[in-house]
Every structure is written in structure tokens, then in C-alpha cells.
């Protein structure tokens, strides 16, 4: 039997590093490493450099904390966006998801997570103070809470709502109801109950 | 809508590069990139360096063409291995699979693929000539064909068998039959037929 399962310490090191990535098991890591071995060295260097450049170079927008290359992100520095609207989201992927709807023209505020005592994440670990400060400085008419409808999301929504009491900003939350193409009979009771309670005039 | 979906060109570049890996879609690529963004810069550099070092440093054994760090792989340079036995396999993963059985003490010969006209892979693209040369140089008593039992594997087996005619080496092929824990009723006819034809005395 091989002492070193991978027969090459360089291969083993690469597989070990790739294996550290979330959701990448040791078989997939080996498959990826052997794939890279078959590529031109320049291709592998291009991949490696892009990772280091990203980690070293990426910045966070000073206004909304979205990922960006400069002091302010493209959205905050876009003069055609509606600065009176601020949509509060958990993370960068949520910004992308909302942008992909092409339905929103306001700004964002990326919390960097939700309040989760189980994971040791409290309000001070999130960008909540900076949101309150942003609202206090004026110019924001409405804060739209767009967190996932989980217990942690609801807790965070409520915490932010309380923090914004005393300011004259309007606080809204994105609609909860039955998702497009979902089957009514398989919808959970909480969702169905809320969808009934939150019914709106037909034809709107 | 964002002009640049990823709001950071550095993030976009990294996601594009990761997305080029086989089996990694754009969503997984984004997830991995954002994971790396949360790691220490040194961790990301360690990953990047391991990939470049592997691609630049890995060599192929001059005897058996297995992946290694030196001129000869650990197996070929191990004095306790049986040099009279050479097991022919398709690739590096197959060497690992056979090593993991801990049942084999001989050497290997890694072809680097199998003959596949559909994929434009002919005998000259594989390490077949070097196998014949190795046998001709003497010292090898038995060549064990351990390719996958596919049409390409069978074709390659037969090609090697013909190439080795005229030498006095014994050519064997690994046993085909019903896999451990397989259900007889669900076994395909070819396998079941071969298992019957290839029956061996009980108790061996």
C-alpha cells in the first residue's frame, strides 16, 4: 500500500486545501485537482491569482456594506437610484436576488447576517447601528425589511423596527404568502394562514 | 439593476474562474467565492499557492507514468514491491483504488486513458508503446489488465494483448462477475452470463 495515498505530496497538499472548501468532499477535491493538472499552467495561475486578488482587493461599501471594488458600491454611487428607499437584506446574495427581479430602484443595507443567539450572533455583530445612523441623517423615507421569514429573520426585523422607533421613517416588510407555482394543498399552515390574513383586492 | 451582476469586478473574476472547474455551477462558484472572502487572506493564499505548486511541480514517473514528485514514483522505487507483476490501469485514480484494496504488491503501468475512437483517442495517445518496451526489457512475468469492463476498456485490453504477442509474458485480466452485495435478479445478462461461464471451485 502507498504510504502517501496520493503518491505526490504536491497533489496531496492541493487536494487537502480544496477539500477545506464547504461542500467539497475528498473525492471531488481529487477530481478537481486532477482536472487542474491537465490544464495549462497559465490557467491554474489565473485561477489562483483571481482568488488572492479577490480576497486582498474586495472592499465593502461604506454606505450599504455591499461588496464592491471602491469606497462606494455601484448601486450607492448610481445617481439614477431612488435614495429615499433603503432595503435591508441579510447578505450580498440577497442583493443579487433582488436586483435580478429588476423591480427595485432604491438602495440597500446589507446587515451581514441575522440575529441568532444559537450561533452567537447578536445585534452588535451586524450593521444595525449604521442603519439607524443612516436613517437619522435624513433623506430616507422608507426602510423595507427583506430578511428571510425565519425565526432569526423575524427577530431581526423586530429589533430593527424597535431601533427605528422615534424616527419618522416608514418601516415596511416584504409580502409573505404563497410562492408562484406552489400548490395550495402542500403549503404549510403558517404561510397559508398569513396569505389569507394578508389578502389584497383582486385586480391590483 | 446592477450593470455588473456581482457588484465587484474582483468577485466576478474569481467566480468566473471557479465556475470553469468541472461540475461547479455559477451558484456554487459564488458560494465558494463568498466563503473565501470570509477566510483569512493567508488561508486563501495557501489554497492558491498549493494549486500553482502542484501544477508546476507534479511529475510523472518515468517507469509507470503515475503522478509523483520525483523521477520515479513511490511504488516503482519501493524495494519491497514485486517487480515481476505489472498492473495496467487507465488513470491515477485507479492506482489509488487498487492500492486501497491492500491486495496488490506489484507495480503499475498508467495508460493515461483508453482507446476511444469517438473521443479521438488512439493507441499512440496512450502509454502502450512504453508498456511493450518495459516488457521487452525483461523482468516482467505477468501483465494484469485492470481496465474498466467497457467497450473502450475491452478494445484497449485486446490491443495490448496483441501488442504483447511474441513476448513470453503472461497476460491476465481481472475477474468479471457479480459485485459484492449486488442482487442477482437485478444483475445484467452480460455480467451474469460471464459470472456463470467464469465460475470457480467453491472454497477457494
> Sheet with the most strands of chain A?
4 strands, parallel
**Order of helix and strand elements from N to C terminus of chain A:** HHHEEEHEHEHEH
Specify the number of helices of chain A.
Answer: 7
The residue ranges of chain A in which pLDDT falls below 50 over 5 or more consecutive positions are none
Main β-sheet, spatial strand arrangement of chain A: 4-3-5-6
Mean model confidence by pLDDT of chain A: 92
Helix content of chain A: 25-40%
Tally of extended strands of chain A? 6
The greatest inter-chain interface is formed by: A-B, 64 and 64 residues
Work out the radius of gyration of chain A: 23 Å
Strand content of chain A: 5-15%
Structural class of chain A: alpha/beta
Q: Globular, elongated, flat, extended or rod-shaped: what is the shape of chain A?
A: globular
The oligomerization state is: homodimer
Distance between the termini of chain A: 71 Å
Q: What does the model show?
A:
The structure is a homodimer of 204-residue chains. With 204 residues, chain A is of the alpha/beta class. Chain A has 7 helices and 6 strands. In chain A, helix 1 crosses helix 2 (26-38). The longest helix of chain A has 17 residues, at 41-57. Chain A is globular and about 65 Å long. At the A-B interface, helix 1, helix 2, helix 3, strand 2 and helix 4 of A face helix 1, helix 2, helix 3, strand 2 and helix 4 of B.
Amino acid at each position: 500500500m502507498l504510504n502517501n495515498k496520493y503518491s505526490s505530496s504536491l497533489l496531496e497538499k492541493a487536494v487537502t486545501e480544496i477539500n477545506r472548501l464547504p461542500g467539497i468532499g475528498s473525492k471531488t477535491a481529487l477530481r478537481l485537482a486532477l482536472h487542474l493538472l491537465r490544464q495549462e499552467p497559465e490557467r491554474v495561475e489565473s485561477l489562483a491569482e483571481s482568488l488572492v486578488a479577490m480576497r486582498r482587493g474586495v472592499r465593502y461599501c461604506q454606505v450599504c456594506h455591499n461588496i464592491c471594488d471602491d469606497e462606494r458600491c455601484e448601486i450607492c454611487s448610481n445617481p439614477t437610484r431612488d435614495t429615499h428607499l433603503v432595503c435591508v437584506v441579510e447578505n450580498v446574495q440577497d442583493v443579487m436576488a433582488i436586483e435580478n427581479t429588476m423591480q427595485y430602484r432604491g438602495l440597500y443595507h446589507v446587515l451581514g447576517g441575522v440575529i441568532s443567539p444559537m450561533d452567537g450572533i447578536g445585534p452588535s455583530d451586524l450593521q444595525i447601528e449604521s442603519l439607524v445612523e443612516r436613517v437619522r441623517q435624513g433623506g430616507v423615507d422608507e426602510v423595507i425589511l427583506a430578511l428571510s421569514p425565519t425565526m432569526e429573520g423575524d427577530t431581526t426585523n423586530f429589533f430593527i423596527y424597535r431601533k427605528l422607533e422615534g424616527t419618522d421613517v416608514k418601516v415596511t416588510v416584504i409580502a409573505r404568502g404563497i410562492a408562484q407555482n406552489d400548490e395550495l394543498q402542500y403549503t404549510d399552515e403558517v404561510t397559508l394562514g398569513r396569505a389569507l390574513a394578508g389578502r389584497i383586492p383582486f385586480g391590483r
